[in-house]
Amino acid sequence: MKIVAIANQKGGVGKTTTAVNLGVALAEKKRRVLLIDLDPQANATSALGMQEVEGESIYEPLVGGTSIADKILPTRVDNLFIIPADLDLAGAEVEIARMPDHLTRLARILSTFRLDETFDLVLLDCPPSLGILMTNALAAADEILTPIQCEYFALEGLVKIVRVVEQVRDSGANDQIEIGGIVMTMFDRRTNLSGQVVDEVRQHFGSRVYNTVIPRTVRLSEAPSFGKSILEYDPSGAGAGAYRALAREFIKRHAPSAIARETEKTHSLESLGK
User: Fold this and answer.
1) pLDDT, tens digit, 9 for 90 and up, residues 119-173
2) Cβ neighbour number for residue 189 with a 10 Å cutoff
3) Backbone angles phi, psi at 74, to 5 degrees
4) Cα–Cα distance between 134 and 160 in angstroms, integer?
5) Global pTM?
6) Based on the number of CB atoms within 10 Å of its own CB, is 84 exposed (0-12), middle (13-18) or buried (19 or more)?
7) Do 184 and 146 form a contact (C-beta atoms < 8 A)?
8) pLDDT tens digit string along 115-128?
9) Which of 19, 201, 213, 221 has CB atoms 3.0–4.6 Å from 125's, for a disulfide?
10) Spatial distance between the Cα atoms of 37 and 20, rounded to a whole number of angstroms
């Protein structure tokens, strides 16, 4: 099992859009995916039409109140499960900061999934900040997937992410964490700037930048308001095609790891869906 934090301290770069749609696209490929919404704004939760769910966030497991397995919910997408978010997570920032193991609480509670192999992949949708929740995500993850908007300040945001990764390593919370991939989002073919930004990021970060580029489309912007992923809302459109291509590239990059296994291990998931 691999844990991937989808993180960028800058908001509005397609982070949640990537978390949701990559998760759905991987689930379509028969990968067993758990999406954990760590943002108190709960955008990933509402993007999957589950905004009415309350009291099921990861808040209680983080502060020691209950088991993380009790918070996992099935979605309408086969093979995709979610731990939704709610406003309680905003309070977790303060409460966890007072605890002696405040950097590694998420890593500890996720260790259960590393043992039982219920999931092929855990995606952590991080809040757009450098607070306790994002730091916990980086301490728990095997790698970071960073969406970067095709705009002028893209590299500036990447530099900050690199510094945060170094701080997490130096703290001893996770000395293996690395930027595993960079996804260029909101690409506009009508402007020269988008192409220039992609070229510049690839020049600096080489093979870490995914070949797949996510376009800017109206449909991608509309889908969350209907509580649907782009693969459900506009399955034959450019956005859905891009995220399916990203999923294929993701799988290829991580083969022959656990995420590439095709054998079915459904007993644990069946119990979660009951």
Assistant:
1) 999 999 999 887 889 999 999 999 999 999 888 777 777 888 888 888 889 888 8
2) 10
3) -75, 150
4) 13
5) 0.90
6) buried
7) no
8) 777 899 999 999 98
9) 19
10) 10
